[in-house]
Amino acid sequence: MSEQKIQELLAKEQKVFVTIYQIIPGLEKFIGRSQLNNNSNGHRVELPFYLAAALDKRNLAKMERPKFLEVEIINALKVNPVNVNLHEICPQFYSFAIKYLETHEDSELVEVLVKSKRLRSLEIFDRAKRFDEDHMDFVDKLDEEERKIFEKQRAICEESFSNYVKDFLK
């Protein structure tokens, strides 16, 4: 299974809150027997994203905006996206955001995410080429996909520099 497929799978497993509009047979498998009696109209439960999206699409429940896409986090991404610790917020931040946006239209959110991804990518590539410096504080803030990009880019830069030095010493 490719790394991208794994990230997509993990993003689908993230949990979101939904408000249930009607009794849904079999839902107790996901919410537990203790909440079974509350599986009724207007009840709020936390479900895996893939299930919440399916129920939302069929108008059986209303999916809430995920916690990691709340106003405070989006505002932080608008102000200084490079300093936002996405890994702490949601390890598959961008993968999950894409999955959410496939089910809910939000042009402002798309704009913020594209801009933040672009600025964070520029910072990733800039830091990756400075492989003689320690960037662990920065890497700790990256989501899983960004970490993979940083590692790959850093390896490319190190190899290029090594080849350059070898050619120079000939």
TrEMBL record:
Subunit annotation: Component of the GINS complex.
Keyword field contains Nucleus: yes
Known function: The GINS complex plays an essential role in the initiation of DNA replication.
Subcellular location: Nucleus
Pfam families in UniProt: Sld5 (PF05916)
Similarity section: Belongs to the GINS3/PSF3 family.
Keyword Transcription: no
Protein known as: DNA replication complex GINS protein PSF3
Gene3D superfamilies named in the record: 1.20.58.2050
Protein species of origin: Diversispora epigaea
InterPro entries: GINS_A, GINS_bundle-like_dom_sf, GINS_Psf3, GINS_Psf3_sf
Alphabetical UniProt keywords: DNA replication, Nucleus
GO biological process, one term: mitotic DNA replication initiation
Gene Ontology cellular component annotations, sorted alphabetically: GINS complex
